[in-house]
Amino acid sequence: MKEPNKKIIIFDDDEDILSICSYILEEQGWEVHTFTDCNNIIDKVLGVLPDVILMDNWIPDAGGIVATQTLKKSAELKHIPVIYFSANSDIQVLASNAGAQTYLAKPFDLEELERVINNVLVIQ
Predict the structure, then answer these.
(1) Order of strands, sheet of 7-11, starting from the edge strand that comes earlier in the sequence
(2) How do residues 11-42 score in pLDDT, each as one tens digit?
(3) What is the torsion angle, in degrees rounded to the nearest 10, for the CA atoms of residue 110, residue 38, residue 78 and residue 29?
(4) Into how many domains does the chain fold?
(5) Phi and psi of 122, rounded to 5°?
(6) DSSP SS3 for 87
(7) Single pTM value for the model
(8) Residue 20: domain span
């Protein structure tokens, strides 16, 4: 019996990043869902129930910190690991303030993307 696909949500308003990440992850068997804003984030995440979330710092409208904090306050969703990603030099602080499990600095290479995702899945 085939394993069900692992699901990931990517929140980023940069279409190039969404398409590159989607392509790479789909090649590895992920079911990828992308959103260009974090409005109604609880509904969006409940609709997919992903194994992991990639969260951009500058996502409209509320921003990645508020979006991540909103997810972490939700009893149903707080267990889902969030990987915070941003080009900010203080990404470690931002990720920590948001309550994310880990972070990925932009620009990143694809091996790094895979490594960070696999690491948070192992931790669960």
Answers:
(1) 31-35, 7-11, 52-56, 82-86, 102-105
(2) 999 999 999 999 999 999 999 999 999 999 99
(3) -40
(4) 1
(5) -70, -35
(6) coil
(7) 0.94
(8) 7-123
